[in-house]
Amino acid sequence: MDLTPWRDISDGFNCVCRVQVQNDHHVKRSVRAGSWFERCNLPIPTILQFLIYWCVEMKTKFILQQLDITSKTATNWASFCREVCRDILMWRSGKIGGPGIVVEID
Question: How many helices (H) and strands (E) does the chain have?
C-alpha cells in the first residue's frame, strides 16, 4: 500500500494498493479505515491536538478557541477520552499487594 494524495477526501490521502485485482482496478482505502478515526468527522490533526490538550488538562475555553470546535464537540471528545482511559484501567486492573508486600491506603 502506498500513501497517495487524494483531493476528494477530507484528509487528502488514501492508501492505494498497486497490485492489480480481478477487475483490473487498484484497491484504495482511507487512511482512517480500520481505526477509531473512521467514524470521526473532525480532521485528524484537530483530533490529535484535542488529545494533547486533554492530556495536559487545558481549559475547555482554550481548547474551543484553539481548535474552533463547539462546546458539544469538546464535551463529546472529553467523554470519549475518559471512557478509553476507564476501559484501559479496567482491562489492566489486577490485585495489588501479595505475600510479603504491604499496601498502605491513606
Answer: 3, 3
14 burial level (CB within 10 Å; 0-12, 13-18, 19+): buried
- 3-class secondary structure, 103: coil
Give the tens place of pLDDT for each residue, 12-26.
666 666 666 666 666
30 bridge partner residues: 14
Q: Is residue 103 part of a domain?
A: no
Supply the range of the domain harboring residue 81. Answer: 40-95
32 shares its domain with 47: no
Name the residue type at position 41. N
Global pTM value: 0.66
